[in-house]
Specification:
Immunoglobulin-like, 46% strand, four-stranded antiparallel sheet, five-stranded antiparallel sheet, 137 residues, mainly beta
């Protein structure tokens, strides 16, 4: 089940994607990327409440497809109580996704992909599912 909503926010564009993770007990998450010129862009998601959750892994790609199998770079590994990551203000188009991992290091399926597009950059090709985020002008 993937539910996607795109709505403008005061700081930039926010994308909500409800993602069903592939674990014994299904989990749901929301992935949001918002931007402010003063603070940079922040990737945010809803906390997972699985009892054996250890944390989250945030991945970054310079193009599509953006998956672990296609060579995404691990950007950060965060604890279970951390549900956001400031990604700064990338100078180039960047794609991001998040996974959750448990106490035996099983990793969930990837969240939906979100894209950061710096001001003045031509738009990239559409992402799977049509998700797109523009930085504020």
């Amino acid at each position: 089940m993937i539910r996607t909503t795109q709505a403008p926010t005061k700081e930039g564009w926010g994308i909500d994607s409800s993602i069903r993770m592939n674990w014994v007990s299904a989990i749901t998450g929301v992935l949001v990327l918002w931007s402010s010129t003063a603070w940079g862009a922040t990737l945010t998601w809803v906390a997972n409440n699985e009892p054996n959750l250890v944390g989250y892994r945030v991945y970054r790609c310079g193009g599509l497809p953006c998956t672990r199998e296609s060579g995404a770079s691990l950007l950060a590994t965060l604890g279970k109580n951390e549900t956001s990551l400031n990604i700064g203000t990338p100078a180039e188009v960047q794609y991001y996704f998040v996974t959750a991992y448990d106490s035996v290091n099983r990793e969930s399926v990837e969240s939906g992909v979100v894209v950061f597009i710096p001001v003045g950059t031509p738009p990239p090709p559409p992402t799977p599912g049509g998700l797109r985020i523009d930085s504020p002008k």
